[in-house]
Amino acid sequence: MPDRELRVCALYPDLMNIYADRGNLLMLECRCRWRGIGFVLTASDLGDELDPDVAQLYYIGGGQDRDQRLCALDLAEVKRDALHAVARRGGVILGVCGGYQLLGRSYELGDQTLPGVGLVDLRTVRVTGPRLIGNAAIEVQLTPGRPRVLAGFENHGGRTYLGPSAEALGRVLRGHGNNGGDGHEGVRERNVIGTYLHGPLLPKNAWFADWLIATALGGEALAPLDDELEEAAHADARRAAGV
Ligand code: GLN
Questions:
Q1: What does each C-alpha distance from 60 to 96, 195, 236, 242 come to in angstroms?
Q2: Atom of ligand 1 nearest to the CA of 65
């Protein structure tokens, strides 16, 4: 039995899994197992009560507007309090694209305004203009020291605007980011993280997968791994973005 264990809860793993975002979960599992850290994955679907203590890391992938509608209502009605409890105790919450949009205050879709779970001060507006698509790279500063680069791919019709109390996850180096205008990408409030980057995100940014694991486990240092392939994937994603 490993003496440490990462428990991850995936919200709506079938509905919110665009661009194989579920690959992020596989990456977390592999990097834990390779180090002898246990890994337990649970899921919470439409209608399921969410246990705020079942996991140290909660994850929502991206999704189509149609599926987001169902999830937005469920998040607001069934899971909201539990997610706020997770955030208050410093648990990690990661939302990608559609999942990211739902962490905010609202998602305006035509004449409908979907409720967000209200963990972070941002709103998203679905415009009829072009989707923001392409390879992207952002510069992030999660720990003191040199900034790091997250590289991936974005494809969203929604434009996200941070409110006065929200901080971006990173600064756009290439691509569109939150809205194609203000140079911000994603959001970070303590251990609640949202980003538009797919790829899936974590296989292309192993260093970020490790930051999430270490943070979820309470800030413990992780044993290094042989990351030759992961670094090649990261370099490739950066090259694709032109960074
Ligand atoms: N449906 C959302 C949008 O288009 C999110 C898409 C996604 O998750 N890739 O903005």
A1: 6, 11, 25, 28
A2: 1
